[in-house]
Amino acid sequence: MKNCLVVDDSKVIRKVARHILESLNIRVSEACDGRDALNQCQNAEHDVVLLDWNMPVMSGMEFLQQLSSINVARPKVIFCTTENGLGHIRAALDAGADEYVMKPFDRDILESKLQQVGVI
Ligand SMILES: [Mg+2]
């Protein structure tokens, strides 16, 4: 069973993502900011990280930059953005994100992104 770390400061987004991912037979853990996510990545391996950009404490971008400095098997990273964050996509891909998805996302789009990064 693959596992996904859902990183978002919105409890509602985490809940929606969890629901979709579990329906795709993926085990889910949640982090509420980049720092929390980094700690969890140091403690357990994840196949994929679904990553929000704007979060308190540590942003998605800072998480991406620090992920490469910790000594773990690197998860695939799908960066989540809103239409307002379109300009962030290039920066996220440059910083090592594998794919991106626009919010609000649905099951079909998330499934196709997970296929594109080879998780399912
Ligand atoms: Mg956010």
Automatic annotation (TrEMBL):
It comes from the Bacteria. The modification 4-aspartylphosphate is found at D52. Keywords: Phosphoprotein. SUPFAM superfamilies: CheY-like (SSF52172). The keyword Phosphoprotein applies. Residues 3-118 form the Response regulatory domain. Signal peptide: none annotated. InterPro entries: CheY-like_superfamily, Sig_transdc_resp-reg_receiver, ST_Response_Regulator. GO terms for biological process: phosphorelay signal transduction system. PANTHER family: TWO-COMPONENT RESPONSE REGULATOR, TWO-COMPONENT RESPONSE REGULATOR ARR22. This is Two-component system chemotaxis response regulator CheY. It comes from Sphingobium jiangsuense.
